[in-house]
Amino acid sequence: MIYNKESAKKVAQSLLQIKAIKLQPNKPFTWASGWNSPIYCDNRKILSYPKIRTFIRQQFVSAIEEHFSKVEVIAGVATGGIAIGALVAEEMGLPFVYVRSASKGHGMQNMIEGEIPVNKNVVIIEDLISTGGSSLAAMAALRDEKCNILGMVAIFTYGFETATENFKSNDCKLITLSDYNTLIPTAEEDNYISEQDIKSLTQWRKDPENWKK
What is the per-residue pLDDT for 33? Predict the structure, then answer.
């Protein structure tokens, strides 16, 4: 679910402007999964641009206040959700924790860093949703520690059907600031891509695993 259609376009414009999102349908990227992709997203670049960083933080806060008003703790997902999650927690005057991708291999072997919010209402912060696997693994780690997960808010999602089903089956409400369906017409309108590119970008979204194999 998109938080706000008007601001979703501004978020997309911001990500394109700072090249946090790159679109190259004629020179695809290769993801870690092995998929060929016309899009590459690195939302950590937001942190280097104060005005955009502030705007994204404000959008997160507004979305959380509207959809998850009973939040007591903010949790960031490593690594992309840590910094922006901490900024959101600071803005809202709330405690912050973050969830590692795997348990630490030494010391206390923590997977959750910070004071574990047992029986507290938690909102999870992510930077990017693809299939939702790593995001939902973080949610499961928090639930295992008896945290009450209200939902998750992310900067951007590709909008894969797999992700939609994964969040639904795990009973996790997902709110995103922008998405692929907003990005592509925005990119065309602002001349980042041509009309000819649209077909290829649309085909990828329908079947990313087999696109240009």
Answer: 82
